[in-house]
Amino acid sequence: MVKDPHYLPYPSRRQLIYARRGLVATSQPLAAQAGLDALKRGGNAFDAIVACAAAMTVLEPCSNGLGGDAFAILWPAKEGRLTGLNASGPAPALMSEENIRAKGYTAMPRLGPAAVTVPGIPAAWAAISSRYGRLPLGETVEAAAVLAEEGYPSSPLASRQWQQSLDLYLGEREIAGGRGGVMEGPEVFDGWFRLFAAPPRAPAPGDLVRLPAMAQTIREIGRTGAQSYYRGDLAQEIDRYMQQIGGFLRAGDLAAFSPEWVQPVGVNYRGFDIWEIPPNGQGMTALMALNILENFSFPQGKDHPDTIHRQIEALKLAFADAHAYIADPRVTPVNVAGLLSKDYAKKRSALVGEEAIEATRGRPEGSDTVYLCAADAEGNMVSYIQSNYSGFGSGVALAERGIAFQNRGFGFTLDRGVKHVEPGKRPFHTIIPGFITREGLPLGPFGIMGGPMQPQAHLQVLSGMVDFGLNPQAALDAPRWQWTEGLKVLLEPGFPPHIAAALGRRGHQVSYEHEEASFGRGQIILKLPQGGYVAGTEPRTDGFIAPW
Asked: Where are the domains of the chain?
C-alpha cells in the first residue's frame, strides 16, 4: 500500500516514519515515549499500548480518563489471527427509564451522574496485559503515574479543549438544569473543579499540569491488576461517591463487569480485508459504506466532485442503517451478515444518483477520544482506542482518586427502540479501532478518533490508500469532509472552492469548518513486505511516532 513514499500532495510538515524493530503512534509525544520505553524494557506491542494508553489518560484528560471505555483489535503473531476486545461498560442496574424520568429528565442527560455508565478502561489494560503482555501491569503503567505525579507541560490542543470544558461546566454550575439538563444541582461538578480546575482556570500551553491523585490510582490499578477498581477499595469509594451525588453506578455494577473478547467483523474492499469491532460500536458503519462504495469506480481521481459525492452518499446510507439496527447484540439481535453482505450493498448503491439524498435515520452525537497503535519486532500489532465520550465526560469526578467518569449514558434514549436505556445494556458506541489484512496476513492497525467522524474518516483514509495509492501519511494529510445531518456537509479549509461549489450544485449544503479537531485525529502503521514498519501520524494534532 506504500507505492511512493515521496508523494505527499497535501500540505504537511510530516514525513513517513520507518522502523525496524517496532514503533508506537499516538497524538501525544510523551505517551508514545512511554510506549517505546516499555518496548525497550523487554515488553512487546501489547505492553507498549497499555503504557501509552495509561499515559494518555494523564496527558489528555480532556479526551479520556480512568472512568472511560476502550476497544482494541489485536494481532498476536504467535496466534496468527485477529482478536478483538470490547471493554465498554453497560448501564448500571439502577439506570432504567423509570429512574431517569423520576429525576425529572424527559431525555437522556448529556452531563451529570445520571449519564455515567460502568467504566471499562482499567479492565482493558488488565485484560491485554494479563493475556498478551510480558511486563507486570504495575511496571507497564508506572510511566503514566510518574507523569501524573511529577507533571508535564500542557499541549496547545489539550489546553484549548480544557478551556472549552471549563466554560461548559462553569455555565452548568451557575444554571443547574441548563444546557446539559443536570437535575441533581451544580454541586455535582465540584469534584471536577477540585481535580482539574482549582482555581477555575484551564492550563495554558506549556503550563505544568500535575495530577497526583491520578498517580495514586494508576499505581493501585497496576498493583492489583485493576481488581481494586472493580472489586476492592476503589470500587467502594466510587459507590459511596455516586450515592452521595445521586448517580446510579454501584460497587455491584463494577464487580459484575468484565471486558469481552470478540471476533472482529470485516469486509473485503478491492482485495484488502478491513476489520472493525462488532456491535455495540459503530465500526460497521465504515464497513457498510465501503461495501456500497465498491460498486463505483473513480476514473476522475480522488479530488473530484464525483468521487467525493459518492463517498458522502455511501456514508449517509450506512449511517442510516447503523442508527436503525446497531445495538448491544446481547439485548437486541443485530443482523451483521445481512448488513455487511455484498448483495445488500449493491441494492443500497442503486440509491446513489447524481443529486444528494436526505438521510432519514439517526443524528450522530459528538465525542472526544484518543487513538493509538503499536507494533513490535515479533510481528505483534494492536489497534486501540479509549474515550470519556464528550470531552472530560459527564463532568463528574472523584477528585481524591483522579477519576473522571464518562457520559456514555447519553448514547441511550428514553424512546422505545434499539437505543432504549435498559439496565445491563451497553450503549451505542462511537469509538472504533480498525485493522487491515490481506490474504490472511496482517498489514496493520489504523484509526481516526472523533465521534461520528470516525467511520467517515476511516472511509476517506482507506479509500485514499486503496483506490488512489496514497501512502499512510498522505492519506492522513488529505483534506476531509464530514457529513453532519440531512444534506449538511462540512469541509476543511484545504478543500478547493470549485469542489465545494460543485457539491453545492448536487444538492449538498456545504460549509467550511475551521476547527481542525472536528475532522478527526488518526494514526496508521503498516507492515513492510521486506520487514519492519512504516507509519503516518495526524497533522491536525500533536501526532507523534516513536520508532525503534
From this structure: 26-261+390-406, 268-366+433-547
